[in-house]
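Hi Y.,

Following your request, here is the sequence exactly as I used it, all 588 residues.
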Amino acid sequence: MPKFQTESVISLVSKLANPDERYVLPSLQRPYVWKEKQIFKLFDSIMCNYPLGSLLIWRTKREMVSREFVKNLNTNAGQSIDLVPDAKPKNMVLDGQQRLQSLFIGMRGSHEGRSLYFNVTSDPNRDAVVREKDDGLKFVFKFYKDVNKVPTGFILVKDLSEKLSGGGGKSCIKLADSYISNSSGKTKLDPNSRETIVSNIESFRDAFITNASAIGFNLIDEISNSTEEKSDEEIVEIFIRANSGGTKLNKSDLLFSLLSAGWANAYDEIKEIESELSSVSFDFSKDYILKALLICTGQGAAYQVKKFKQEGSLDKVTKNWKQVRQSIFDVVTFLKESTPVKSKKALVSQNSLLPVIAMRFEMGKKQWNNFDKTKIADYILRTTLAGSFNGAKDSLLDKLSESMKSGFNLQKIMGILKSDNRSVEFDEAKIWGITYSSIEKVYFCMSQVIPGVSLSEVSQKDIDHVISRDLLREIKYDGVKLKIAEIDQLANLTILDSSQNKAKGNKSLVEWLKQMDPGAKGEYLKRNCIPTDEALWEPQKFRDFIESRKTLILEKSLLGSHIAQHHVDLDLDVEYGAESDDGDDGDD
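Below is the corresponding structure, written out as tokens. Let me know if you'd prefer a different format.
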């Protein structure tokens, strides 16, 4: 079991500054992200003796790539990475980077060229209303760059901590008198503030220098205690669980650090693809990218360190990385160009894409470009509306990936999902349960409602209420107003060009259709499955209108066909590969 220890703030910060102590971070742990106000609150919390939460430190000699804590933060310069793995003893901080980095910057370094100062003249007992101008802090800390512009009463934290700790530490009274007597000009301290200054300096000393229990941490010490040695999987799991309450970390953050001896450029490669995917609104996590890499190279969706320690495994990963990377981007491009999924946010299930990425990898660029991808769009439509991938396990992803690699057959894919007790059907209840709040599902459905309109065409248009939302807000049934969810239901939605949507505005359906000539009006009603009985167009007849339109949608659109045919062979044969579906494709 990890051993719990405590230490003073100044002691731990001194260790961060000492290269011989080797306090480091996993190379792919998230960058330092705290804002200035978070740093101020941390220092204030320590002064107030608030609990900080425990850290997690792993003392090990394993060969890993790591990075040092930054003394002088400069975000434009980036954070240094030592790309050469070493097997020297090191204290790997698995949880607590943001807190330790903030303390190191504040007590020993700088933040964007500015140093941290403490206002020793402020009264921590002042009224809460007065403290509002200081973001509610009892003890005020601020960053300043130009020493000549530092306001009266602010003392450099670095200077204060050194004088209180060095050589046994100076007397707080003498130190306060020294600051008062040595101050001059517009920064001159008021001798009448002596009592407050002494008290604040004493509080600082107690909090940061003498309190040996200020910071608690769990230590996994594999160097001094062989019984503490953990497997790679255990360390990864500890890392994830320890960080589950803060900014989200990915299992791959530590996993790649463990693997970096065999893939030295892992950090740069992963950060680059993360950045590029984010720029096109698909900010997939490192976990997701790693899972795609494993699936494509035939190593299964579950990411485990032992896989990469098998002979030839890392060679396979590094050899195929560029092709996997291109496969991910080709699938994302297809989504953006040919489906309503224009961003990760609109992707109901990320897992549904992993088998498609594996298929693209297996095909190669030329075959993918010539492949009829409308079948993939239908696969995404069906699994989206059915919720097929809710809680999907790695074993299912492996089965689907192997199936798609051997040939894309939608009927067979649905069979694999069904055999895994996945939902593959979208009945009327699921369809009519979709509302305006599920924009991506509305787009999918509208592509099936309006004949001859592709998914990509639909998603370029605006979603609009057939009967205006504003006109329905005051409608009552049995004295009760319509709920927003009822107004926003799928049966009251359609799509319009942006110009049409703007022209329609909040007009009633009667007013809107009066603007059309008879031929255009008839075509509009038919294409959008709107009942021709004009009496139903009045807001007061809303529920009757909805029931009539639902019937038309199921009778005249592809949605009805999909619901009716989910048990029917749709004649979706193998679309690529040398063998037909009659042969043994290895999926049984």
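The first strand starts at residue 3 and ends at 7.

Thanks again,
Q.
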